[in-house]
Design a protein that fits this description.
The complex is a heterodimer. Chain A is of the alpha/beta class. Chain A is built from 12 helices and 12 strands. The chains are: A alpha/beta, B mainly alpha.
Chain lengths: 337, 333
């Protein structure tokens, strides 16, 4: 019995320690009429509770989305809870997260699906409970979401192709490394870059795209093998933070002459920012993760207030960052480290 | 005097046996108290069902792992063996157009086959369980990606597979849309079978014998290698069943998932009081251990604890549980 008590004491201690560190400063579970107990004598005007179930939470990109969402929530008077699985292959844990959020009876859900079809039945329960759903990032392949808040990745990757073609003077060989061929973002970025290149710069040869899972080491290996097979490569495009990071590692490790290579990336992170400043990387397309988070909450609040018709897509835009523009205020606002 | 002493021993044993169960109850009451403080309710039927569903897959995996851990071994491959079983079920149903029950059998047997590989590596080739199963972990993980060409396989033409696992028992709704999920009944049925095998069969007896003193078992004429192989096959079969259920839940085979599940399963086994040094353990303990892991995961999310801290707490609870279990053992010794 004593041990039972000591176990519960350890538990209580551990939990109390983290209660000081709960994500939201305001009353955490401001659920709207979750239970009879919650509604009786609830004198405080409960803020609408918005659940955001993301594809991850550890990457800096997701932390920037989270910041945008929580800041916007504070501004608009909503309690925002941002969560996501540990890795982007955790399809099942993401469903458990959705179920737990549904049990809190949120006023709205913002959702970036790891697998739209797998999430279908759970998402249907949100629809049945008349909880508005806003999709973001990769979006959700379903009719349930009212709108999708995302970057137009095809247009953004096409901009990268334009910059590349222009810099190379319309000729040369470009290696393309993308994170995967299954997610919407991976498909769109590969397509956007390759199609634009073929259309506008037909004399540029494209090597790839090859897929490195957004993993630094794997993407570096891909870049090295491309270079081994094609020593005359003049440019590289990396489709996300990990892919381009791998290219940068490969080029540094092989001690290549960086003046002969045009490297263009996607998103930011300290490594890319440093590489752009040092001249190793020519530039990178910047999504607006803070804007994605903020827009999610804006759209969710409109839905909570009763708006029923939405645009199919809310484009959060993108910017070009190179040595000359990286210190501009508008670019600085979307960079993350 | 002797009678009094023995009843005290029985009483102490009672408390020890229900230590894990007590901890689970304390944990649930703790979350309920927290929920009352923030004006909500933890003890709802919906939460109960969500926790059951979340626990089922890893819970079943942990059943098989219990056998292996009692022999003093470890199986790190259960997570990705689950994945390849999920993939093989999907392949059977979709590209081979086999009926769903056959697909289920293919999935479970795939798990058994991977278990056989583990067993042969360990018992015949004398490779340490940690290394052998680490190898099979990667083999299964890689093969899952190869077979699926890294893409998920969906089976939209077999909705009965998903509803048959995720639906409510007898279609009865207990509260709102929620009933007792069939997947939970499958988990409890699997636990009953596991408890029977461990407690009432020769395999169960040899599982404990291998863990308590393998040399003594060998000297008394037990075919140690064959029984050990069988234990790993059993573990693989449970991982295979977990894969089938996971496939049903997701309506698809997800080739990149599963890695890391083995740690949740091993946590459940250890929190449930099974000793990593072998020779001791119960199925009831494992199931309770699995619930402790998932009540904790679900509860922390339900009360909105920041995710970074959720991970920290999970680690602390694992260590605390094992430490207290050690105290119990030392006291009894």
């Amino acid at each position: 019995m004593k041990k039972l008590l000591s176990l519960s004491a350890v538990l209580a201690l551990a939990l109390a320690a983290c209660s000081g560190a709960t994500a939201t400063p305001t009353a955490p579970a401001a659920t709207t009429g979750a239970t009879a107990a919650a509604t009786t004598g609830a004198t405080t005007a409960a803020l609408p509770y918005i659940s955001i179930v993301s594809k991850g939470f550890q990457h800096q990109f997701w932390q920037a989305v989270k910041k945008g969402a929580t800041d916007e929530g504070a501004k608009e008077g909503a309690t925002v809870n941002f969560i996501g699985p540990n890795t982007e292959s955790d399809v099942q844990p993401q469903l458990d997260m959705l179920s737990a959020e549904l049990a809190k009876k949120p006023a709205a859900l913002c959702f970036a699906a790891l697998d739209s079809k797998a999430a279908g039945p759970t998402l249907q329960k949100f629809a049945d409970a008349k909880i508005p759903v806003i999709a973001f990032d990769s979006g959700v392949d379903s009719t349930i979401p009212l709108t999708t808040v995302a970057t137009d990745n095809i247009a953004a990757a096409a901009l990268a192709a334009d910059k590349m073609g222009d810099k190379l003077g319309g000729k040369g060989k470009v290696g393309v490394i993308i994170h995967d061929q299954t997610s919407r973002t991976g498909i769109d970025r590969a397509k956007g870059f390759v199609d634009e290149m073929k259309l506008k710069y037909p004399n540029i040869t494209i090597i790839g795209p090859q897929y490195g899972g957004g993993d630094l080491a794997k993407s570096a290996d891909l870049a090295k093998s491309m270079l081994a097979a094609n020593p005359d490569i003049t440019g590289f495009f990396g489709g996300n933070e990990g892919s381009i990071g791998g290219v940068l590692n490969a080029v540094t490790e092989l001690h290549l002459d960086q003046t002969k290579l045009t490297i263009i990336g996607y998103d930011s992170g300290q490594k890319q920012i440093d590489a752009i400043n040092s001249g190793l990387e020519f530039g990178a397309v910047q999504q607006n993760p803070i804007g994605i988070g903020a827009k999610c909450v804006v759209e969710a609040m409109l839905a909570i207030k009763g708006q029923t018709t939405f645009d199919k897509v809310v484009d959060t835009g993108f910017l070009w960052a190179d040595k000359t523009t990286i210190n501009n205020a508008d670019v600085q606002a979307v960079l993350y480290k | 005097m002797p009678a009094g002493r023995s009843s005290a021993v029985i009483r102490a044993d009672f408390f020890q046996r229900f230590l894990a169960f007590g901890a689970l109850i304390v944990l649930i009451l703790f979350f309920q108290a927290w929920c009352i403080l923030i004006g909500t309710n933890f003890l709802t039927f919906e939460n109960f069902v969500n926790i059951l569903v979340a626990t089922a897959v890893v819970g079943i995996m942990a059943l098989g792992e219990t056998f292996v851990v009692i022999t003093g071994g470890i199986d790190l491959s259960v997570g990705t063996v689950m994945t390849i079983s999920m993939v093989m079920t999907a392949v059977a149903i979709t590209s081979q157009h086999l009926p769903v029950p056959v697909g289920i059998l293919v999935g479970v047997l795939t798990g058994g086959l991977m278990g056989l590989a583990n067993g042969v590596l360990i018992a015949r080739l004398r490779i340490a369980p940690f290394i052998a199963t680490l190898g099979i972990l990667n083999v299964a993980r890689g093969l899952s990606l190869v077979i699926t060409q890294t893409r998920p396989i969906y089976f939209p033409d077999n909705p009965e597979f998903q509803s048959g696992v995720m639906g409510n028992v007898l279609g009865i709704k207990v509260s709102g849309e929620f009933g007792i999920p069939i997947i939970a009944i499958i988990m409890f049925a699997a636990a009953v079978i596991a408890a029977f095998v461990l407690g009432k069969t020769a395999l169960g007896r040899y599982t404990f014998a291998l863990g308590s003193n393998e040399e003594a078992a060998r000297l008394s004429g037990v075919n140690v290698a064959n029984w050990k192989i069988l234990v790993y096959v059993v573990c693989g079969l449970f991982a295979g069943l977990a894969g089938v259920l996971s496939a049903a839940r997701l309506g698809s085979a997800q080739p990149a998932t599963g890695f890391g599940y083995e740690l949740a399963a091993i946590s459940a086994v250890v929190i449930g009081g099974t000793s990593l040094s072998g020779g001791e353990g119960t199925i009831t303990g494992t199931i309770i251990g699995a619930f402790i892991v998932y009540v904790l995961t679900y509860g922390l999310q339900f009360v909105n604890v920041a995710q970074e801290w959720q991970i920290v707490v999970t680690g602390v609870v694992l260590i605390a549980a094992v430490y207290i279990d050690n105290l119990r053992r030392r006291q009894r010794a």
